[in-house]
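Quick one, T. Sequence first:
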Amino acid sequence: MRRSDQPYHHGALRAALLSRAAEQLRTGPVSELSLRRLARDLGVSHAAPSRHFPDRQALLDAVAEDGWRRLEEELAAVDPGTGAGLRARLLALGRAYVDFARTEPALLELMFAGKAARPHPPEAELTGPGAVVADAVATGEVAGADPARTGTVLWAALHGVAALAVGGVLPDGEVDAVLGETVDRLLDGLRPR
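Structure tokens:
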């Protein structure tokens, strides 16, 4: 019997499977994610998901790819733009990243831990921090930085703050202060001398 809170419409099974998988990851670990359970939850035959995902790994790949897409959309939505300055942009991205990590810890783990066969999409290299650094180089706010490499360094720092927040190492009241200090210290090294 189909769950009433998870409507499924013919022709939208792939989207329904991805949505339900993301929901399950909010309440349980990746190891509990299965095509059979998703099919049962959506009220379809256990073979129906195989039309979209031939095996569990294909499902994990698609969930991770969808996670990257969602993260990129969330980062783009909070970016105040070049007029706001590099610090304001990095703080906005950092806060959104930490919020995503806190809301979707198992999904973020799947996206990074190599459980999906494919890495994040190459076009993601100049989104988020990399794109912000490229803009800052173009406006002269940052001198001589390789945007992709510097974006990776900034991303690593933001990911570290997010990991400490998700792991409970940073109490809720400390996250924003540590994020601000992290951004300030990174910016100090990037500013033209």
